[in-house]
Amino acid sequence: MPADRLLSTLLRSLQTYTDQQDTPRILGTASSLLTTLGNPHNLSLLTSHLLTAPALWDRPEGVRTPLRLLSVFHTAVTAVINHQNDLRWDKAPQVLPGQTPVGGGLPLDEWVRAVVAGADERSQRWKHLITLGGLLIAIGSLEEQGMELYWASGIKKRVEVALVRATNLALVEVRERSEVDGLGGQTIVLVLNHAFGCISDAEKALLDYDLLLPVLIGTAYFSNEGFQSAYFMGGLNLDIKRTGAKLDWDASSTSFRQVEAILARPLVSSMGPLSRIIAHAVENVRDPWVIQAMMDDLASFARALTTQWRQINLSEVDPAEEDIFLEEAALHKTVPLLWTLLKAALFATTITLQGVLVRTLGDSTLAGDAVAPVIASQTLQTLRHLYFITSRLGPASFSQHTFVYLTAIDILSAYPMHADKFLKAIAPPQLGQIPRHPLDRILDLYFLNTAEHFSLVLSTAANEDLLVASAVPYLAAGANHNMLPIFEAAHSVMLAVLSAPQSAEITAKHLPFYIDALFSVFPHNLSPRQFRLAFKTLMRVTAPPSAISASHPDLSATLMELVYHRALSAPTQPLPPDEMTLALQGSDAPPPALSEQAVLALTLLDALPFLTISLLEEWMPLCAELLSQIDDAAMREAVKARYWEVLVSGEMDPERSGLAVAWWGTRGGRDMVLLGREMEQQEYMMSGALPVEHTPRESKL
Asked: With 0-12 CB in 10 A as exposed, 13-18 as middle and 19+ as buried, what is 295?
């Protein structure tokens, strides 16, 4: 069929929508015509009808409709450019008589002008982005594939300028027509998500980010093409069935199919690039108050996500016990797909928050005393609501989260009153108790991990009433392997509070209890490394010139005595390796197996640099004696090496080092450490005496 007749047939098909229409066939025909029509007016006419056709736009399938049209223009311009490039290199096939050349024989510049001319006033401005975006994406894609398109650089530049200008006009239009959350705003986001990398930095700077940012956030988080305000989890519980003690979520259920459909959405499946565009928009917004409004939106989304998660039965299963309480299909198919969707929301939010904090650090308005602590608090609140996802990955599993988390803490630490208010807002509702719901324990873990960083800026009362009170229930929870992270976090909080200079009074009050808890959990629930670190911290806290050393001068000696006497009767069999030891087993210098007695000896050696001169003089020989009582040769050598390291590595100040050198060289320290066990086995006798003979000498008489 001649191209003109085919065009007439296609235009008639585009005028009305029918349930039986074959949309892919219509779009395929349109793409073919775009590469064969030789009349610029016909090209403009076809483009205009594609952007206004009732057959396509009366009942659009969300952003899939503009995405299909985007591919039409992308395919057409790709074919035209490839043909033009072949002509330049004499690779194009010979055109047969009666055959229409690709592009209708028009030069590329004229062909592009004709197509763009079809994006006229008869269609909404946001639809113009489909045409311009398809052209620009195709040119950029061919350049990425290595095609030399220097001859088309002028065309690409003009399309870039037109796309940016059309975007700004479309943003104004959708705002005036209240279509920000509708298909207009979603199409703007869709086109920019695909074309943003093809736009030069100079043109990106001309975008109206003040209008663009709300459209991006609304589309990504609250529209039916994004995360739907987190309400997609609302119907999950209807399909989660309890069979005995296990939960099952059928792969054929409506809710699971909805999760699959959300993940298949064009914008959700490309949420990574979209979140980077949002972060770029945040960094380039002219009005900083737009960022504050966006932070409120992110906080409400994260809060809704946590609320929805709590309401489904899956939240009642501890992550470490999923293989016990989930059926096989739920464990390996349905639930992992849900976590894939939730992780997409987490990653997108984290990237966006990274842009917020980068902007805050360099913006005088956002960095002001009235705004900075609010943004930092909102950031930490948002991360808290998403922590049930983060905790499954590990908070340090990706660098963006670490940057956002620590930067927000640094900012908030500069404002003690705001920090106190924030911690009171996220503190466990019932201090002194371990909650039964796994989600509440996860939130407690976030509180402990976060509160640890604020112990230096909080008041003594806040440290005791909030931090200590929330940590105490978990100090002895190490026996439950599922609660090991929160058990370790509780010990970290206690050490942080006891180390704070303003906490001398509560240190004296709570130290005996904490020491008792420390000894009760070692070595079964506390690794040797953790025990040594905890005791070393306590010794540093109680050593001069701390305030508690003045009010309780005997505390350091008491702590040393406790460890020493426990070491005398401690078991000598090797302890099972912890995670750190297992990780280093394959290294060049794997750590030796240590017994509880050897670990306690190392703990005493770690504390020597913090003792007063008189105590150091007393404890160096005692540590040497304890060293000689270790039966295992490998363990004894490891302790000897640590003893030598403490003496010569610079851990001691000059005064203590001088005393240590004198003890080592002239007071028998060297022999006690290196030859202590052999010296105990030697028999002492008076000078000039004969050795005792064990067999009687034979009489010569």
From this structure: buried
CA distance linking residue 613 with residue 611, whole number of Å: 6
Provide the percentage of residues in the chain whose pLDDT is more than 90: 66
Phi, psi of 249, deg, nearest 5: -130, 105
* pTM recorded for the entire structure: 0.88
Tell me the backbone φ, ψ of residue 392, rounded to 5 degrees. Answer: -75, -25
pLDDT per residue as tens digits for the range 217-273: 999 999 999 999 999 888 898 999 988 889 999 999 999 999 999 999 999 999 999
Distances (CA, A) of 403 to 127, 271, 408: 38, 20, 8
Cβ partners under 8 Å of residue 320, min gap 6: 481, 482
pLDDT (tens digit per residue) in 615-643: 999 999 999 999 999 999 999 999 999 99
Reduced to 3 states, what is the DSSP secondary structure of residue 525? coil
For 33, the 3-state DSSP assignment is helix
The tokens describing 480, both together, are 């439950």
Tokens of 205: 């700077």
Task: Parse the chain into domains and list their residue ranges.
Answer: 1-207, 225-414, 527-574+592-675
Do residues 386 and 339 make contact, with C-beta atoms less than 8 angstroms apart? Answer: no
Residue whose pair of structure tokens reads 């064990």 in the numeric block: 694
Taking the C-alpha atoms of residue 329 and residue 247, their distance in angstroms, rounded to an integer, is 10
